[in-house]
Design goal:
By secondary structure, this protein is an alpha+beta fold. The model has no long low-confidence stretch (mean pLDDT 86). Strands 3-2-1-6-5-4 form a 6-stranded antiparallel beta sheet. The chain has a 5-stranded antiparallel beta sheet with strand order 8-7-11-10-9. Among the domains are: 114 residues, Beta-Lactamase, CATH 3.30.450.20; 159 residues, Alpha-Beta Plaits (2-Layer Sandwich), CATH 3.30.70.
């Protein structure tokens, strides 16, 4: 016995060593293979996904000012004031100031189509002029089909501070264009959003205008230079970047490889740049690999140790239960001899009901005679699968012999066993087995008995067999309880 135990311990230890060596070798090989693919994964998946997320969040952050501008454009006060002749500037100024203060916008404005007056919260700012570049936005808005646009312009009301404006078309009650209204967001507010994006996504993020100027960046990672045409790493590819709506690029900076994804944002007429240092990415993955390697080795060791303990304790029982019927893959009578003892012991200890079913396929010999033994085998497999599928996980079913099956029902008295047996009978009756283009149907007869406390196993089996005999004598395809 000692030699057997010692042999088991050696086998388990050898298995643990082999698993560790195999896992370690596989992990190292995978690391070096994956290291070469990290760059492609970041460029083709990670950075574009980050850019998409940031783009979606920018759109989300602009929804509120768009809603405010829409409200202003549909406000009957604004329409009536314009239609009434714009005779009281104080009224429109007070209205614009309330919008600005109530919603916390950086700016609020209205431009009249009739007078070309540019009103803001403090009165009349100016008259827009079609020949002035600063006013080009208005004449663009009056001609467009879309109800609004988002653009970036200097705000004359704030010493030409760079501002993101939402310009909304204002229509009268006959849907005629009468002006443009909207609000502005300070670029500093958007810069705070960029800082938030960088903290969350751990990327370097900035915006570039169509001329290549770096117009917006977070406070924590201001890019080198003010124009990408002068950037040491980007200057050679700047023209290509600004000629495409999106793309993936790589460049060297201070002996480090930088991975870059660029996406054009039409609402702002800017390019979104999202960068990541390749060395940082590899470092994170390497550390994760080593940690996973250590954890997996430890877990493998613990799992094998527990397996060895369980194997030693339950070896005899598992060897018996492992024997099964080669055709149906159900346990056989040897397994039943072990299981019935456990079931009866549990029923005694917990004072629980235990019932037995004996299931016999009706007219099985006729199927063999008419279609052959292969058809009979298919029926046996199908019935076994049907029984297994309709029983509870705690129940036990085995092939008893020939066309008979035996079922043990834990925590199940005769009444409930009768109901479950009827369910099994109907399931088999509704089953169709296809064999060589023939559709075969069978029924089963079942005998049921409930174990009585102290009753021998042979007696329980005999009573169940008698019930099965009665079911077959009564016409088959039925359930009989004794």
């Amino acid at each position: 016995m000692h030699n057997i135990f010692d042999s088991k311990r050696k086998v388990i230890f050898l298995l643990w060593v082999l698993l560790c060596i195999g896992f370690f070798a596989t992990s190292i090989a995978s690391y070096y293979v994956s290291k070469n693919s990290i760059r492609d994964a970041i460029v083709n998946s990670e950075l574009p996904l980050t850019a998409d997320n940031i783009y979606s969040e920018i759109q989300k952050d602009l929804i509120r000012p768009i809603f405010i501008s829409s409200m202003m454009a549909s406000d009957t006060f604004v329409r009536d004031w314009v239609i009434g002749g714009e005779d009281d500037i104080v009224k429109i100024s007070r209205y614009l100031n309330e919008v600005k203060e109530t919603y916390g916008t950086f700016s609020s404005f209205f431009v009249s189509e009739e007078t070309r007056n540019y009103y803001y919260w403090d009165g009349l700012l100016k008259q827009v002029d079609e020949n002035k570049e600063a006013d080009a936005w208005y004449f663009r808005v009056r001609k467009m089909d879309s109800p609004y646009e988002i653009n970036v312009d200097p705000d004359a009301a704030h010493a030409n501070a760079l501002t993101i404006f939402v310009n909304y078309r204002v229509l009268d009650y006959e849907q005629n264009f009468i002006g443009a209204a909207g609000v502005g967001l300070t670029v500093d507010a958007v810069r705070a959003l960029i800082n938030n994006y960088q903290d969350r996504y751990q990327r370097n993020i900035y915006f570039v205008d169509p001329k290549g100027n770096i117009v917006l960046f977070g406070n924590k990672s201001q890019p080198l230079g003010t124009n990408i045409h002068d950037h040491p790493g980007l200057q050679k590819m700047a023209g290509e970047i600004l000629s495409k709506p999106e793309g993936a690029y790589q460049y060297q900076l201070d002996h480090e490889r930088i991975l870059l994804n660029v996406r054009y944002i039409p609402e702002l007429d800017w390019y979104l740049f999202v960068e990541r240092n390749e060395n940082d990415a590899v470092k994170d993955i390497r550390q994760t690999l080593y940690l996973n390697l250590l954890v997996c080795v430890v877990i493998t060791g613990i799992a094998l140790l527990l397996t060895g303990l369980a194997f030693t304790r339950y070896q005899d029982r598992l060897e018996l239960m492992a024997t099964s019927d080669s055709l149906t893959k159900l346990p056989n009578r040897q397994a039943f001899d072990v299981i019935i003892k456990t079931f009866i012991s549990d029923a005694k200890r917990n004072e629980e009901a235990l019932s037995m079913l004996m299931v016999d396929i009706d007219h099985f010999k006729a199927v063999n005679d008419q279609y052959g033994h292969l058809a009979g085998d298919q029926l046996l497999i199908a019935v076994a699968d049907c029984l297994r599928a309709n029983l509870r996980e705690a129940d036990f079913v085995c092939r008893w012999g020939g066309e008979e099956f035996l079922v043990l029902l834990r925590k199940c008295d005769a009444h409930n066993a009768l109901q479950l047996s009827e369910k099994l009978r109907q399931a088999v009756e509704n089953m169709v087995v296809e064999f060589k283009n023939e559709l075969l149907k069978v029924t089963v007869s079942q005998g049921i008995s409930q174990w009585a406390d102290g009753e021998p196993v042979d007696s329980l089996i005999e009573r169940t067999d008698i019930a099965l005999y009665q079911a077959k004598q009564a016409g088959r395809n039925r359930v009989q309880l004794v």
